[in-house]
């Protein structure tokens, strides 16, 4: 027969149910040792569990830190990518806008030049078909502003237009009374529309071709002003003449052009 003794979690079997004194002392010593081992085991297990918990917390903290860093990297990369995309889109838009602007400017320049040509042709036709008396009147008005202190001058025209020139000079005479005496002569070397004004200050060509050239230059200036918006001069002049003389400098590029002419009469 075996008698089993339980002490805590320890169980000891004793044959025939008799525990001798020496065995009892050994048994209690073993029980104490068993309890000590049990406590040490529990302490070790608790220490290991605590260490595992600390390691788990450290790992979790590291994971969260790495996740936060990854999120920051993602956000930064996303922002940089957005900024880069925005820069590229801006560059593309700017390049396209510049191309479209250049194309629009070229079209505008062509249209403006075409409009200038149309207006110039229309004005040339009007001027070339107007009454010759009007042509000479305009020439005399321009000449009177260009010459100073000239008592006598000669106006040479085509013989076919001598009558118109005399009519214009007669109408102009009261305005120049006491300042300028004009003699009108027909010159067979001159074609219709010609108008040469001779004086001590030189020769001024105020004919039809000169006035038409002045109209074209004025329209060209107007076109350039519309395209560039830089010129501060008047956009257009309806009538002008070219001039140059040894004693009188031209007022601008549309004043009468003085060039040497010989008297063929």
UniProtKB/TrEMBL annotation:
One of its GO terms (biological process) is protein transport. Keywords: Coiled coil, Protein transport, Transport. Residues 45-80 form a coiled coil. The keyword Iron-sulfur does not apply. Residues 125-213 form the Flagellar assembly protein FliH/Type III secretion system HrpE domain. It holds the Pfam family FliH. Signal peptide: none annotated. It comes from the Bacteria. Residues 238-265 are annotated as: Disordered. GO terms for cellular component: cytosol. This is Flagellar assembly protein FliH/Type III secretion system HrpE domain-containing protein. It comes from Piscinibacter terrae. The lineage of its organism: Bacteria, Pseudomonadati, Pseudomonadota, Betaproteobacteria, Burkholderiales.
């Amino acid at each position: 027969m075996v008698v089993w003794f339980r002490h805590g979690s320890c169980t000891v079997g004793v044959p025939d149910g008799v525990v001798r004194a020496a065995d009892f002392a050994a048994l209690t010593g073993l029980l104490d040792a068993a309890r000590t081992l049990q406590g040490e085991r529990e302490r070790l297990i608790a220490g290991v569990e605590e260490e595992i918990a600390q390691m788990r917390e450290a790992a979790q903290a590291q994971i969260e830190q790495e996740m936060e860093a990854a999120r920051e990297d993602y956000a930064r990369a996303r922002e940089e990518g957005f900024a880069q995309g925005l820069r590229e889109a801006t560059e593309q838009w700017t390049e396209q806008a510049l191309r479209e602007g250049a194309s629009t400017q070229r079209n505008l320049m062509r249209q403006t030049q075409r409009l200038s040509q149309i207006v110039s042709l229309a004005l040339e036709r009007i001027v070339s078909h107007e009454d010759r008396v009007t042509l000479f009147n305009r020439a005399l008005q321009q000449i009177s502003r260009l010459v100073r202190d000239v008592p006598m001058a000669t106006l040479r025209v085509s013989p076919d237009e001598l009558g118109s020139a005399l009519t214009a000079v007669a109408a102009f005479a009261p305005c120049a009374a006491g300042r300028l005496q004009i003699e009108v002569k027909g010159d067979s070397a001159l074609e219709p529309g010609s108008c040469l004004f001779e004086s001590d200050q030189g020769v001024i060509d105020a004919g039809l071709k000169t006035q038409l050239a002045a109209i074209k230059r004025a329209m060209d200036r107007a076109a350039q002003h519309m395209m560039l918006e830089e010129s501060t001069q008047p956009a257009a002049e309806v009538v002008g003449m070219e001039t140059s003389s040894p004693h009188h400098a031209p007022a601008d590029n549309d004043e009468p052009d003085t060039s040497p002419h010989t008297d063929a009469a």
